[in-house]
Design goal:
Blueprint: E1 12-16, H1 20-29, E2 34-39, E3 51-54, H2 59-69, E4 73-76, H3 81-93, E5 97-100, E6 116-120, E7 123-127, H4 134-148, H5 151-165, H6 171-183, H7 185-193, H8 198-210
Parallel strand pairs: 1-2, 1-4, 2-3, 4-5
Antiparallel strand pairs: 6-7
Helix pairs in contact: 2-3, 5-6, 6-8
Length: about 210
């Protein structure tokens, strides 16, 4: 499998299954998408603001639900393998992405795996093991979380800096400055502490790279 990022802004995600797994999937996609969860009952878990529809579609009715809601992604998260099979078939027939929460290991071509994810602002880091070891994915995510702390603030800082330097420096020097800023321990420490000296440190890095006095 090759990892891709998909923008779900303005899209719909349709989840079949109102248990804890369906709730977790709903929360995951509700960050961007409008999520609809269809189930005869719902757990007390947090569904992330998803629209909950109480219904019990059988395998024959699943395709109609998929056609009616026109989702970008369908999630099969029920405890009924027959219904999950129907969800996968309906998605395939209608050329829609599908994630089966009841499967692990090798997947059919075109299937979607939702990886363990760490987020900090616009920065997203995901870990997948090809469905072989969800426990390892979670463990690696926990190891990565401290490394990603303040990465969102760094992304914002360097985006602004990149825009500011676009007219001031040639492309080669601009790239060199940005590389040094993201590797500079003092800048990271300033982001962590909320220091007001970050701008001065960035100015020093620019001076070091370009040879110009601040």
């Amino acid at each position: 499998m090759i990892p891709l990022l998909h923008d779900f802004e303005g899209e719909t995600v349709l989840v079949f299954g109102g248990g804890s797994v369906g709730a977790r999937k709903a929360r995951h996609f509700a960050r961007e998408a409008a999520v609809i969860v269809v189930s005869p009952s719902f757990s007390a878990a947090d569904f992330g603001g998803a629209e909950l529809i109480r219904a019990d579609p059988d395998a024959d009715a699943v395709a109609a639900w998929v056609a009616r809601t026109d989702p970008a992604l369908v999630v099969a998260a029920t405890d009924d393998e027959t219904v999950n099979d129907a969800v996968e078939t309906a998605a395939s027939d209608q050329n829609i992405l599908c994630n089966r929460a009841d499967q692990s290991g090798p997947r059919d071509p075109g299937s979607v795996v939702v990886p363990a994810t760490v987020r900090d602002g616009p920065v997203v880091v995901s870990v997948a093991t090809g469905g072989r070891s969800p426990a390892l994915s979670r463990a690696l995510r926990e190891r990565i979380e401290p490394l990603v702390e303040n990465a969102g603030a760094m992304a914002d800082l360097t985006a602004d800096l990149r825009s500011d330097l676009k007219e001031r420096l040639p492309a080669g020097e601009r790239r060199a400055v940005l590389r040094e800023v993201v590797r500079d321990d003092a800048v990271w420490k300033g982001l962590d502490s909320g220091s007001s000296n970050i701008d001065q440190r960035v100015t020093d890095v620019i001076s070091d790279v370009t040879g110009d006095c601040p």
